């Protein structure tokens, strides 16, 4: 007898969770609107809009308007490579996660533990 999988829905989602998801994954709206009378196009509007964090936009190569200052702290933060912490699920700088610990929950990788052991002085 095969096990049956039922879909589940988390009921604890808040507006903050939805906004975080949209900024993390990004949202793109692309629309073409035309107004025609008797088969003759009178008005045409093309709309392209993207809603994403700097990090997501940089990752997918979205173009920014001219005049965007790429020397800001937010831009530098967006360019750092991040991974999800296996314990808390937050996105953390890969170098920090592998060599030190997660700043959110304190999770340590095996490499970080090994580095700490090697840095400890030997007993005399």
From TrEMBL:
Superkingdom, taxonomy of origin: Bacteria
Keyword Repeat attributed: no
Transmembrane domains' residue ranges: none
Record keyword Nucleotide-binding present: no
InterPro entries listed in its UniProt record: Gas-vesicle_GvpA-like, GvpA, GvpA-like_CS
One Pfam family cited in the UniProt record for this chain: Gas_vesicle
Molecular function in Gene Ontology: structural molecule activity
Subcellular location field: Gas vesicle
Gene Ontology terms: cellular component: gas vesicle; vesicle membrane
Record keywords: Gas vesicle
Family, per entry: Belongs to the gas vesicle GvpA family.
Protein name: Gas vesicle structural protein GvpA
Native source species: Thermacetogenium phaeum (strain ATCC BAA-254 / DSM 26808 / PB)
Classification of source organism: Bacteria, Bacillati, Bacillota, Clostridia, Thermoanaerobacterales
Gene of this entry: gvpA3
């Amino acid at each position: 007898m095969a096990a049956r999988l039922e879909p589940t829905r988390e009921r604890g989602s808040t507006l903050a969770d939805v906004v975080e998801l949209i900024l993390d994954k990004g949202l793109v709206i692309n629309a073409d609107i035309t107004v025609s009378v008797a088969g003759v196009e009178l008005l045409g509007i093309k709309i392209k809009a993207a809603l994403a964090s700097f990090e997501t936009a940089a990752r997918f190569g979205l173009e920014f308007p001219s005049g965007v200052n790429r020397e800001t702290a937010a831009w530098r933060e967006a360019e750092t490579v991040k991974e999800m912490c296996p314990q808390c699920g937050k996105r953390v700088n890969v170098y920090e996660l592998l060599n030190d610990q997660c700043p959110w929950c304190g999770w340590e990788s095996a490499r970080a533990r090994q580095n700490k052991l090697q840095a400890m002085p030997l007993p005399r």
